[in-house]
């Protein structure tokens, strides 16, 4: 089933977050009537967007948000590092279970034409390559088990509606490590790219990086991620789909790319006394490519764009100063 989003009424939950900002711009380019629901302040949202501040852990609020909408992109989530998920698991798991369950239920009750559910790389068991169909024969890693299981329950909920009601109108995407504008740049709790960018721009010399730089990870620029979400909805894809590069890049390459974009004279100090993590973690993007989607932004282009935005918006970033946010 193909979906034409041109001019349609579209709800984006978590639309003030990193991926949401890119998604909103792309939907506006399609002349969509966009409503964003979030608990965050709508700093910098385009004036054409209808912004509503609601707590989406409450079913009644979700019903209110979905009323009159044709499409829903559910991006709302808890943003934070693996360290935060280990130390504050209830703050990750409980809200995700509440708003994911309530939003999907509200969308089905309101007869939304199509719904996109944003899952996570955290649903996977540790492996060198993550393949979509392996999820239900394994368990999430101990490091990701609370947010991982919360996201898995959302996927299972979609399956339940299909079995009981024949509602086969839900796309499920599992993004890799996403980075870009509006990211969480807190060095203590952010993911590797935004953390290193903040520390480089803030003057850390030499730049200290954990491990030896050899681990390989899969990163996706937030603009590409948003494009992939739209692509899956427009093409009526109901299988879970990985959104990533499928190629991978080493932590050493990431650090060097950031330095080259900002100041090539900066030296890197590798702290091999610290853990370096798994040697290789990549997304299998065969399924996404079979549906016609492939990332277009190189790591060098994405990093340069992100550094430029961060340097121009540091005051706004400090004003928000909300490292533990709802919104992906």
Descriptive account of the structure:
With 328 residues, the chain is α/β, with parallel strands linked by helices. Helix content is 39%, strand content 17%. It is built from 11 helices and 15 strands. The chain has helices at 18-29, 59-66, 82-87, 89-109, 145-165, 192-201, 222-234, 251-262, 286-290, 299-312, 314-320, and strands at residues 9-13, 33-38, 50-53, 71-74, 114-118, 129-130, 170-175, 177-179, 207-210, 216-217, 219-221, 241-243, 249-250, 268-271, 280-283. The strands form 4 sheets. The chain has a 7-stranded parallel sheet with strand order 3-2-1-4-5-7-12, with helices on both faces. A 4-stranded mixed sheet has the order 6-15-10-13. A two-stranded parallel sheet has the order 8-11. Helix 2 (59-66) crosses helix 4 and helix 6 (192-201) crosses helix 10. The longest helix has 21 residues, at 89-109. The protein is globular and about 55 Å long. The two termini are 27 Å apart. Mean pLDDT is 92; it is low at 322-328.
What is the strand arrangement across the widest sheet?
A: 3-2-1-4-5-7-12
List the uncertain runs. 322-328
Write down the Rg.
19 Å
Summed up, the helix count is 11
User: What helical percentage do the residues reach?
Assistant: 25-40%
Structure class:
alpha/beta
End-to-end Cα distance, whole Å, is 27 Å
Q: How much is the average pLDDT?
A: 92
What portion of the residues fall into strands of 2 or more residues? 15-25%
Sheet with most strands: 7 strands, parallel
The topology string of helices and strands comes to EHEEHEHHEEHEEHEEEHEEHEEHHH
